Amino acid sequence: VQLQASGGGLVQAGGSMRLSCGASGRTFGSYAMGWFRQGPGKERELVAAISSGGDTYSPNSMRGRFTISRDLAKNTVYLQTNSLKVEDTAVYYCAARKAGGLGLSIGSYEYWGQGTLVTVSS
User: Fold this and answer.
1) 55-98 pLDDT, tens digit each
2) Of 108, 77, 87, residue with least CA distance to 37
3) How far apart are CA 95 and CA 17, in angstroms?
4) Pairing of strands 9-12, 116-121
5) For residues 61 and 26, what is the distance between their CA atoms, to the nearest angstrom?
């Protein structure tokens, strides 16, 4: 599986942005997907995850502002980000795992995209 993240850029605080992650491969629908981010000087952290069956999960700190979804026909997973804050500035990565259940840790994903930078200005 190859993943290509896009949609990042510069946005003002309070704004919204939708990130996309296109995936190659016929078995995309059976994979669980996730979005992670890594801010300057910070560790990579989970933003949201979606199972092959469409179940979703976000950590409490992300819930309400970040929404993950997927379009199986387009082999694409999305991350809708709202009410962005300066501290949301980070490189956002999409990831895929062969197991269909929700993946909540970095180590549970086998495939990673190259990342897309989101910069939130004050």
Assistant:
1) 999 999 998 999 999 999 999 999 999 999 999 999 999 999 99
2) 87
3) 19
4) parallel
5) 34
